[in-house]
Every structure is written in structure tokens, then in C-alpha cells.
Fold this sequence. Notes:
Blueprint: H1 4-22, E1 54-61, H2 62-68, E2 86-94, H3 112-118, H4 125-134, H5 143-156, E3 169-171, H6 172-182, E4 191-196, E5 199-207, E6 227-229
Antiparallel strand pairs: 1-2, 1-5, 3-6, 4-5
Amino acid sequence: MKTAAAVLAAVLATAAGTAKANDIRSCAVPLTVNAPQAEPPPASEVHPDVPIAAYLLALFWSPEACRSGIPESDKVIQCQNNRFGFTVHGLWPNGPDKVHPRYCRPGAPISVSTIKANLCMTPSPRLLQHEWQAHGTCNWATPEDYFKKERKVREKLNVPELDPGADGVMTGAEIRKAFLERNRKIQPEGLNIRVKDGHLTEVWVCMDLKFKYAACRGGNGAPDTAVIKVTPRG
């Protein structure tokens, strides 16, 4: 039988882990981080001349990223050493149509210090490097400028936790409601719920050119009536 002190310690440890998972300024960051190399951009994705018409902040549902083993996830930082809910995939400039500005100029490797400073927001060095090259180079002079703006946009949001319950599912309406109740300036049409193989993967928060919440230009993803599998936080 656990002593009262042991029970209290376990409760405090759990609470601390939850706080860290929800706070992009605090999580378990490894002492040593290897900076990834700059990636060669796919020729078909290089669109430096497309004008910016809007922005969106893409949020990964981290438990699903870990469950499905997507390449962007870091198995140790994201899936073993921390218990994240939503993490930032990226801040994306969007074009006026279906083609968006990407890989607008060469993006040098990000410094280790910049990677460490942002790992609690985007817990993958590889993904941080990719987002800077693919999206950040289209509107920001340096990786530091890009991630500073991304952090500001993320901190403005009151990002919810999701609890799918015993049946492991939520409707599109329930996922939207979780965001709308905490963020009164966002309208239902300003969220795009992304689903793959029946599982929630991401929620996109759409903004205009002044980074004010706006209707999503590319649709809203899963409808309110959709029944979506939501991988629980482990």
C-alpha cells in the first residue's frame, strides 16, 4: 500500500506532467540536440512567386502523430519523454487559390539554440527545419523571426485538451466546440478539422493577412456530423 506521501508525490508528478504538456514554454527537452541538415526542396513544391492571401496555424494532435508514426514526429522527444496534446505543425502563408507560397528562398540549417527554444511548441527538430524552409522563408528574414511570430500566434490561442471518453470518438461538432468555447473570437468556419483514415490528425486555425481569425479559404474539413476517432493521450 502506498503511503500518503507517495500518493501525494504521484499526484504532483502527474499534475506537473500535464502542465508541461499544455505549456509551450515548458517540457522535457534533451540536453543534447542535433541540428538537422537543410532539406532539398521537391521541385514540384517550390512556389516563390505566389502572393500571400491568408495564414493558418496548423495544430497536430500529438497522440495520433505518435500512434501512426508519422515521419514528422520525434519518437523520443514527442512520444516518449513528453505527453503532448496539440502541438504546432506550422504557421503557413496561404495563396489566393489552391497553390500556396512554399520554399521561397534557400533556408539555412536552424541553430541548435533556436531548435531547443521551440521544442516545447514543435517537438521535432526535423519538423522545425522543414517548416522554416517550406513556409518561413516566404515571409520572414530569419528562423528566429518566423518562430517568434509562430509562438505569438500560438500563445494567443487557448488550445483545449480533448477527451474522447471510453468509446474513443468525438464528433466534428464536439471538437469545434472545444475550441470555440475557449476562443470567443473564432467562428466555426474559421476551423478546419483534418481527418485521415477516420482519425483526427490536425486542427487548422485560419487567419487573414493581419493574423486575425477568419473563415478558412479551403473549406472546413470534417463536418459537424462526422464521428472521428481521437487517439487519447497516453
